[in-house]
Amino acid sequence: MTDPAPFWRAKTLDAMTRAEWESLCDGCGRCCLHKLRDEETDRLAYTNVACRLLDGETCRCKDYANRRKWVPDCVKLTPKRLEKIDWLPPTCAYRLVAEAQDLPWWHPLVSGRPETVHEAGISVRGRTVAERDAGDFEDHVVSWPGKWPAKARTPPVVTNRRRPG
């Protein structure tokens, strides 16, 4: 008997329960970085400026349940909104599942450990500037949120496995 496919392979995004949907968030914090859009070219630029509610160590929202009260333009992701959003990083599980791709080895649903998102270099931990300290956001344009880190592409080699017998 084979194991059933994990929910992210077996269900569409709009068929997921709220708990399943929320668990897709890997806790990287990349979507909580401010983005700039050129009005003339519509070109998107990522910054390393974190939303005021982003905890730079955990890479999670400090007040997720009430985030729209404090940050009115915070986007609540839904399957419908996801179709129109072009700023999610390429590593985002919502984007990957919407594009019929599998979750990578470092995603906590795959690894079973929330720390792998940090170990793989996906998270924003240690790479952000607070809104209040940033000054002009244009001085903080960076490219890394829109890229896959090299070490995140392949799982690490485990060298401490015991030999059978």
UniProtKB/TrEMBL annotation:
Protein name as it appears in the record: UPF0260 protein GWK15_20325
Pfam families, alphabetized: CxxCxxCC
Cross-referenced HAMAP family: UPF0260
Species the sequence originates in: Neoroseomonas oryzicola
Annotated InterPro entries: Puta_zinc/iron-chelating_dom, UCP006173
Entry similarity comment: Belongs to the UPF0260 family.
